[in-house]
């Protein structure tokens, strides 16, 4: 949107909360782009999004919702609260939980689906090309890779087009956009071992996409504050991609129990230094060390940003030894 010349402010989970962003605004913005967590959505009453996106619904923060998925789902659906037919609701037609609950939900806005797996009538991919209305972009031209990035790109295309951005401007951005910090961020290669910072992956769904995108034997660093996680969806990917699991947290018993017998080597560590040392002990040239926690960071770190930043600092220290 910025590259298209639109004045945009970013708020919510990224940077300042929406109210503070408005209070501190130094100019009149055309649009506010807001990432809303379920915590923030719980406080939504009068707010209305002109364009609302529901990227997926997967078990997360269940400790906050009495371990009841229905309560968490109800929180996520508040993203479309107060919308009318003049507004837009964009949803993931590949997400099983969304497809289960949305037919039972009254949607006042204009609904637009997106799918990375086939034609759905909104934004979609046939596996090689992104499509929206009469517009196309070959996936090979995107700088960021992986199925999850195809899905995210389709959601962004639908939202930006509805906001009035020209498709070619969107395509130009997708050709050059290299991804965000802490999400499958390649830090460096040390002694032939690639280190990837995926600290933003604080739930199992994000980790699923991370593990699915791995092309090297992987030493997976995971753990932290468990939010009611169910790890069964990661078992097959762990069998295929993970040569060692390094558990990083105050209490790692749930992770250890879930992957004992699945991953041949498991370490129980309680500090970042200890975790990286364990990963180094088994990593060989051609391997990858992936920090993709599947958990919140609050047991050992202030937030996922601090966890990712410290991980990157440790990798750079290894590089400079």
Compact overview of the structure:
With 321 residues, the protein is α/β, with parallel strands linked by helices. It has 2 domains: 8-176, UDP-N-acetylmuramoyl-L-alanine:D-glutamate ligase, CATH 3.40.1190; 185-320, Protein-Tyrosine Phosphatase, Chain A (Alpha-Beta Complex), CATH 3.90.190.
Task: Describe the model.
The protein has 321 residues and is of the alpha/beta class. It has two domains: 8-176, Mur-like, catalytic domain (UDP-N-acetylmuramoyl-L-alanine:D-glutamate ligase); 185-320, Mur ligase, C-terminal domain (Protein-Tyrosine Phosphatase, Chain A), CATH 3.90.190.20. The protein has helices at 18-23, 38-41, 69-76, 96-101, 147-162, 167-176, 204-212, 235-241, 253-259, 272-282, 304-320, and strands at 8-12, 31-35, 51-54, 88-92, 110-115, 123-125, 129-132, 135-138, 185-190, 193-197, 218-222, 242-248, 265-269, 288-291. Helix 1 links the parallel strand 1 and strand 2 (31-35). Helix 5 runs antiparallel to helix 6. The N and C termini lie far apart (42 Å).
